[in-house]
Write a structure and sequence with these properties.
With 220 residues, the protein is an alpha/beta fold. It is 35% helix and 29% strand. It has helices at 24-40, 56-64, 77-90, 127-140, 162-174, 183-191, and strands spanning 2-5, 8-15, 18-23, 45-50, 68-71, 73-74, 99-100, 115-119, 146-151, 154-155, 158-159, 195-203, 207-214. The strands form four sheets. Strands 5-4-8-9-13-12 form a six-stranded mixed β-sheet, sandwiched between helices. It has a three-stranded antiparallel β-sheet with strand order 1-2-3. A two-stranded parallel ribbon has the order 6-7.
């Protein structure tokens, strides 16, 4: 039994009443992402993971960073079920029950977090989902709080690899509102919300880790 997700194949495995999903790409990128998170996340506090997908990252990061309480979330109930299956199997005290979160909703179900982590979302969703992520980060992060975003980007309007250009075409064929975003445009939108771009890290497979820090407390 298989399901297509983000261009890769997921195996569905029975775990009680839940379906535990496994993404090969998440297995490949979890350690490179963790290496960046170790540097940029606070030592303690709550990390909200927006669009946690299968739940593999949530377990891996929560296990590696035991002083952080990890809050997974997703808009898709199937992914939340998978996250719960991974959580039940891992039995980690600092990994919380997944919640439904649509970035375009206001308010979010989580109204305070010390950091937000988001991977591989903004290119497989409409632009307003990215704007919702930035709006929500501006609302719930404290001054100095971190927003971490991972995925492929265009730089100065150009793709960074032929494979990314082909991937972008395939995304737009599936949904014209999808597509690889231009980093400068996301940075500008983040800055207008009090989120300062502080670091971009080159990652494997032509992806980037992009780190923002909240520079001022926003109302609302």
């Amino acid at each position: 039994m298989y399901r297509q997700f983000q261009g890769g194949t997921l195996r569905l495995m029975e775990r009680g009443e839940y379906l535990k999903l496994l993404s090969a790409s998440s297995e490949r990128n979890k350690d490179p992402i963790l290496n960046v998170l170790r540097r940029v996340l606070p030592d303690r506090g709550v990390v909200l993971e927006v669009a946690s997908g299968t739940g593999q990252h949530a377990v891996h990061f929560a296990r590696a960073l035991p002083d952080l309480n990890w809050q997974p979330s997703d808009v898709d109930p199937g992914f939340r079920a998978s996250q719960e299956a991974w959580r039940a199997e891992a039995s980690l005290d600092n990994l919380l029950e997944p919640v439904h979160l649509d970035t375009t909703d206001h308010p979010w179900p989580v109204n305070q977090a010390d950091a937000i982590v988001n991977s591989n979302m903004i290119h497989i969703s409409p632009w307003e989902v990215c704007m919702g992520l930035l709006d929500g980060a501006a609302r719930i992060l404290p001054e100095g709080g971190v927003l971490f975003m991972y995925g492929p980007y265009r730089i100065n309007g150009a793709h960074t690899a032929d494979s990314n250009e082909a991937f972008d075409r395939s995304l737009k064929m599936r949904d014209p509102s999808w597509g690889i975003r231009d980093l400068d445009e996301v940075v500008r939108e983040a800055a207008s919300r009090g989120l300062e771009h502080v670091e971009t890290v080159q990652m494997p497979a032509n992806n980037l880790s992009v780190v923002y820090r909240k520079t001022a407390v926003m109302s609302g």
